[in-house]
Amino acid sequence: MKRRHFFYYCLFLIAGCTATKTSNGRVSNENTGNYLQKLRFTVTDAQNLEELERDYGELRIALEQVLEKKIEFVPVESYVAAAAALQSDRVDFVLTGPSEYVVMRARTNAVPVIGITRPNYRTVICVSANSKIGSVKELKGKKIAMWEIGSTSGHLGPTKLLIDAGLNPKSDLKILMLGSKGLPALRKGEVDAWGGSAVKCEKFLQDEGLSENTLPIIAKGPLLPDDLFVVNSKLNYDLVAEISDRMVKNKDKLLQSLLSVAEGKYKGSKLVPANDSDYNMVREVYKTIGQGNFIQ
Predict the structure, then answer these.
(1) Taking the chain, what is the end-to-end CA distance rounded to the nearest angstrom?
(2) What is the pLDDT of residues 34-92, one digit of tens each?
(3) Measured between alpha carbons, how far is 100 from 2 in angstroms, rounded to an integer?
(4) For 139, which of 100, 158, 236, 244 is 20 to 30 Å away at the CA?
């Protein structure tokens, strides 16, 4: 999922968001008046209504058929804005990524409904074929390009690989958030390494007509946590259970509707149970980079 460069500033803005669970741990039954007829839905990867309609219009139609409710798109500028929308009760239902979920869960008690896998959703670190760097440890004192602050595969994932190699990401090397310019910068020798999505790396090589040997991979992480459908914690408990049950029973229809998403992100995906503990890796990295207060 995409991130914004004002990540930490935006997190500060929602730092006051509070939990909304009832004392017995069940979600609140308040404000459920017209939710049986309509669910307000957003995707944190889409920046505006046009992108929502283009990439997730088929999903919206499928959800309306599966849930037998009107699905209304509510565009948000970022996942931070989505968290604020959940907190202020302007959104009921969200499709979001691992990094965003962790923040949403901490700040709004967003309820995970179901996960959606992403094939080969993992992080790699690669270097130039002309480089003498053969391991992540050798990046000490070097420059590494990453995607964008807060990105699961393009920031937190590669940072975890640095940490696992014994490097301090805050002091042992220089991290540059270059977005789509990162891999070209590596090829030109402007940085020493690139850390990001394995899929993005493969696509870059394919688009440029390059072999894998051009940018050899020196580290590959495990599969990252799944994307998630989450709901507003103020939704009726029985309604949440019904949404989950209907989505599971109609998983093939929903997955088919996601094939239109850009870059084939959900091609070959599966709907799976959502387990909060699967996202502890993301929480660990936040804490290591000194941002643990945002997910508490």
Answers:
(1) 21
(2) 445 899 999 998 889 999 999 999 999 999 999 999 999 999 887 778 888 888 999 99
(3) 10
(4) 100
User: Rounded to whole angstroms, how far apart are CA atoms 130 and 194?
Assistant: 14
How far apart are alpha carbons 127 and 136 in whole angstroms? Answer: 10
For residue 211, CA distances in Å to 81, 199, 207, 214 come to 40, 14, 11, 6
What's the Rg (C-alpha) of the chain? 20
**3-class DSSP state of 233:** coil
78, 62, 87: which is closest to 1 by C-alpha? 78
Q: Is the pLDDT of residue 260 over 50?
A: yes
AA identity, residue 261: V
Please name every residue paired with 27 in a beta bridge, in sequence order, or none if there are none.
Answer: 21
Q: Which two tokens stand for residue 195?
A: 């850390």
- Which amino acid, one-letter code, is at 174? K
List the structure tokens of 218.
Answer: 């020196």
Paired with 145 in beta bridges are: 176, 194
d(CA 183, CA 164): 23
Which tokens in the block code for residue 135? 């391991």
Answer yes or no: pTM beyond 0.90. Answer: no
Strands (DSSP E) contained in the chain are 38-43, 70-73, 93-96, 111-116, 122-126, 143-146, 174-177, 193-197, 217-223, 227-231, 271-272
Task: List the domains of the chain with CATH numbers.
Answer: 7-119+225-295 (3.40.190.10), 122-223 (3.40.190.10)
